[in-house]
Amino acid sequence: MRTTSRLCTLAFAALALGGAQAASAQTEPNRSLSAQPTLNFYGLPGLMDMPSAGAMPDGNLATTVVHFADQTRGTLSFQVLPRVTATLRYSVIGGFFTPDASPPAQEFYFDRSFDLHWLAIPEGGWWPAVAVGIRDVVGTGIYGGEYVVATRHFGADDQLAVTAGIGWGRLGQRSPLGQPFGPRPPIDIGLGGNVDFDQFFRGDAALFGGIEWQATDRLRVQVEYSSDLYLAEAADGLLSVESPINIGATYRLGRNATIGAHYLYGNTFGLSYSLLIDPRRPAANSLVTAAPNPVAPRPPRTQPYATGWTAQPDGPAILRDNVARLMEEEGLDLLGLSLDAGRAVIRVRNTRYQFESMALGRAMRVLSITMPHSVEVFEVVFVVEGMDVSRVRMSRSDIEALEHAPDGAAQLLARAEVEDPLGARDPELIEILEPGRRFTWGVSPYLETALFDPSAPIRADVGVRAEARYEFGNGFVAEGEVRARVAGNLDEQRQVDGPVASPTAPYPVRTDAYLYNRESDARVERLTFSHYGRPARNIYSRLTVGYLERMYAGVSGELLWRPVDSRLGLGIEVNHVWQRDFDGGFGLRDYDVTMGHVSAYFDLGGDFEAQVDAGRYLAGDYGATLRLERVFDNGWRVGAFATFTDVSFDDFGEGSFDKGITLDIPLGWTAGTATRENVAATIRPVLRDGGATLNIEGRLNGLVTDYHRPRFEDTRGMIWR
Predict the structure, then answer these.
(1) Are the C-beta atoms of 196 and 239 separated by less than 8 Å?
(2) Distance between start and end Cα atoms, the chain
(3) Cβ within 8 Å of residue 24, ≥6 positions away
(4) 386-429 pLDDT, tens per residue?
(5) What is the pLDDT of residues 239-272, one digit of tens each?
(6) 118-135 in b/e burial notation, b at 16+ Cβ within 10 A?
(7) Do 147 and 166 contact (CB within 8 A), yes or no?
(8) In the chain, what are the domains?
(9) Which of 176, 312, 578, 607 would be 204's cystine partner, CB 3.0–4.6 Å?
C-alpha cells in the first residue's frame, strides 16, 4: 500500500498521546513482574544498570530515556520473538572521550549502539528463568558487555523477583573472579559498526544481582548490586562510583508510561521514563467507521430465480447507479461492472480500509443488496494503480449462510477462490466500464528531521507541502510534490566526517544531502509520470520517469513476478538517474549512474517477511541488502536492514556499512478511523554513500501483495466488520 512519509518523532508523539487517551475500555494486560518486566537503563529487561532474565510481551516496542551524571541514554527496544529482545540506543555523554582518542573539541560525545537479549530458559516450577545478553553488538564498544543472568519470582502474583548473574566487559569490572574464557582484547573503536566477536565473553568476569518488589499495582522498588565501575567515565571525571548498591523506584502512569527515580553509586541521582507500545492494541479504543450494510438474503427458492431482468433496457444503468452509490458510501470506488444472469464481476479501488478483507466484505455486501436474485457468483477484482491485482470469487449462498456463523469469516475465505484476474473472462452480456480518471490534491504541514548529526543529535525543519496526483486510467499516473520550509535548522547540517578525500572513496551520492537544505527554502520534491501494467499472468510492471526524489531524476523500470497465492516473489529494477541541482529546481548535475537490483521477497510465516536485493547501488558499488520485517495484521511493520557492498569499511567511513531500522505505523491505529495512510520512518545510525539506494514511490511488491490470498487470510477476521 502507498505510505505517506513522515518522521519517527512525530509518530511517537502521536503514540504517546494515543496511549494516554485510550485504555479503560480495553482489557488490562497482566502487569506482574514476570509478565511485564521493568526496563533498565539500557532499554532491556532489568533493574537499573543490571539486566534480569525476562522478556517484554511478544511484539511490543518500548522507548526509554534515562539521565544521570551528565549523560542521557535513549533507546528503542523491540520484542522481536517471544524470547528475543533487540535494542537500539543513542547516548549523549558530556565531557567524555573514547579511550583511543584525544580530548574532544565538542562539549558532548554521541554514541550509537545495539544490544541483544535472549531468554534462553523460561521460568518454570522451581527453575529460574535464564537469559544471555550482549551489549553494544554493533557500535563503538564503549558499552560493550556480556552476561548470563537468572531470575526467580516469588509470591502468588510474582510480587518479588530475585536476580543473580555473571558479566563480562563493563559488567566484569568489580571484584572480578578471573578470566574463565581468556583475556579480552582492548576496544578498537575505529569507525564503529563492526561486530567484534573476539570481545564476547572474554576477559574478567564478575557477579551482580538484585531484588525487585511489586509494592502496588503501579509502584515497584529495586535494589541492585552493580558490577560496572564506569572506569572510562570516572577517568574523565564524569562521576565517581563510591558504592556498588543502587536503589530505585518506578511508577506506572496510565496504561503505557512509567517514570522512575534512582539513587546511584552512593552519590548520584537519576531519572528515567519508559513508554511501552503494543502494536496489537490500538491507541484508540476501537475502529470508528460507519457500520456496514447487512447482507440481504434472497427469499427461499422454490423454483429458478427469474432472469428476465437481463433484457430490461434500463437495467444496466440502474444496476450501475445502485452499486456505485453504495460503494461510495462504503469508501470504495467502482471502476467496472460486468454481469450475466448468474455471475457479477465488479472492479474496485480501495481508498479507505487498512484491512483489505474489510474492503472485500463490504463489497460483497453491496453486491448482495443490489444484484438480482439469479446472480449466484460474486467476484471482486481489486485494482491498484490501474492494475487488476486479484480476483476474489465467492458464492452468494455462502455469504448469506455464513454472515452470522461463529467462524463464518474463516469458512467464507476457505471456500473463496483468489486468483490472478488475467486468468478468467468476465461476463459479456452486460458490461459497464467507469472511467479510471481521478484527480486528488492536498496541502499539509510537514516535519523533516535529521538524526545523529555529529554536532547535534536531532535537527528538524517544519514547512508546508502541496501534493497533486492525476490518474489518467489504464495505469497512467502523474504526480508531484513541492515543499516550502518555514523554520528549522537543517541548513546548519554539515557533512559527516569521513574519507571523502580518499581516491577509492565512493562519489558523495548521499553525504551531499546537507547541501540541498542549504541552497533553497523551496523545492520540487518529486515530479513523475508513471505507467503500471500487467504484461502477463502473475507479472506486474512499472515505468517511472521524471524527478524521482529530492536528489535524483531519471527513469526507473521494474518487473515483479508474484502469484496471488504464493509467499514468494521475484523482481528486477533498473534505473538510470542524474543527480539534481542543490537548489531543488529542475537543473541536473554532471553525475549520472545506471543502477538496479534483482530481488527476492519471502513471506516466512509467523508475521515475518524477508527481502534480499542484489545489484548495483547509487555510487556504482555492487553488493546486496537483506531486510527482515515483522508484519502485524493491522498494518504495523517493524524491520531492520543491512547492506554490504564492495566499498570497504574504511572507504565507507563512520558506521562501516549501511544499516538501519524501519517503522510503518498505520494512522488508523492512533486515530481509530478507517484510513490507508501510514507513518513511515527509517532510522539510520549515519547516512553514507556506500550501499545507497533510490527513494522511489510506488514500488510494486508493496502495492500488490495486500490483495493476495496470504494477506486476506491474515486479516480474515475483518471480513464482517
Answers:
(1) no
(2) 20
(3) none
(4) 999 999 999 999 999 998 888 888 999 999 999 999 978 888 77
(5) 889 999 999 999 999 888 999 999 999 999 999 9
(6) bbeebbeeeebbbbbbbb
(7) yes
(8) 31-277 (2.40.160.40), 308-436+710-718 (3.30.300)
(9) 176
